[in-house]
Amino acid sequence: MNIRIRSQHEKILLNNIGAVTRDTCIEIIYFVGTGRVSLLFRLVTRTLDDAMLVAMIAPPDDKRKRKKVIEWVQSESVRYQRVRDELLAKGFQISLKEMEV
């Protein structure tokens, strides 16, 4: 699948769970020999609440990354409670376990 198309699918999925995102071009490479241009895009959440929403619904599987997410969530207890309450009110299941936070 085309990376750009996949990125749009991910954006739609994130928007469906309430996370607002924007596309950001982080790299442009021009290949002199072929004249080809390569672009690298990244989806970025607009707010920290959006980032926490994504972290709570789909936390990383990688142990080091997950640990960093848990540390961040623990340091933002007021934000965590607010986002958690909003997610539960909308009927979403939180994948980041309560005991981890």
Count of extended strands? 2
| Helix and strand run | HEEHHH
* Unreliable stretches: none
What is the domain tally?
2
Major β-sheet strand ordering? 1-2
Structural class: alpha+beta
Using the CA coordinates, give the radius of gyration.
17 Å
Taken from the alpha-carbon principal axes, the silhouette is: elongated
Main β-sheet, in a few words?
2 strands, antiparallel
Give helix % range.
40-55%
Number of helices: 4
Q: Mean pLDDT score, rounded?
A: 87
**How many angstroms does the end-to-end distance come to?**
36 Å
Proportion of residues in β-strands: 15-25%
Topology:
Elements: H1 3-16, E1 21-30, E2 37-45, H2 48-57, H3 63-75, H4 77-89
Antiparallel strand pairs: 1-2
